[in-house]
Amino acid sequence: MNRLARLGLVVVCAMSGVSTVTAQDADPLKSAVETRQSLLKLINWSFAPVGLMLKNKVPVDAAAAQKSAARLKQLATFLPDVFAVDTHKATASTKAREGIWTNLSDFASKADDLQKAAAALEEAARGGDKAATITAARAVGVTCGGCHKAYKDD
Ligand code: HEC
Which of 61, 75, 123, 150 is the most buried (most CB within 10 A)? Predict the structure, then answer.
């Protein structure tokens, strides 16, 4: 990279850094809500191929399920951290219930349920057995619902 290009990169990085800090300073609670909703969108996106298999809309594909599971296993570990900030006074629109911040350890254990179910799905799918893959996939879906029932408005 020549010197001018490198300088340009430094300037661009510095500018984006500044704007991120400003946005967060403006409303840290809103930013916390947006960050966790982004994580849940990503969790949903990662689960989607498995969801289609569960609804019989696509054939069971163990390799695809294994890939989804590996992603969910990692993403689940972010959940307690992105919910650490108590945002019940946030102005941003959110479906998170206030109970999360009085039951943080239970909330974290529900995130752990997802993490473990995803690990089990990854293992089942690795074996290539379609019936075992679907059974484990259903169990992952149950953990989504388990947390939503307790901590998310409809
Ligand atoms: C440990 C708790 C927990 C687990 C596990 C969990 N969720 Fe959620 N989810 C929430 C909460 C709380 C919200 C509401 C967040 C908000 O509005 O600020 C949410 C929101 C969502 C949203 C809406 C995101 C948006 O704002 O657009 C989707 C989609 C979603 N979850 C899908 C899933 C799927 C699929 C799974 C399982 C693979 C899952 N969730 C597992 C707690 C959880």
Answer: 75
- Best residue for ligand 1 mutational test, from 30, 35, 37, 40 (most atoms within 8 Å of Cβ): 40
How far apart CA 22 and CA 38 sit, in angstroms, is: 19
Ligand 1 centroid to residue 148 C-alpha, Å? 7
pLDDT per residue over 135-148, tens digit each? Answer: 999 999 999 999 99
Q: Which residue has a Cα nearest atom 31 of ligand 1?
A: 40
Tens-digit pLDDT profile for residues 108-125: 999 999 999 999 999 999
Nearest-angstrom CA–CA distance, 134 and 121: 8
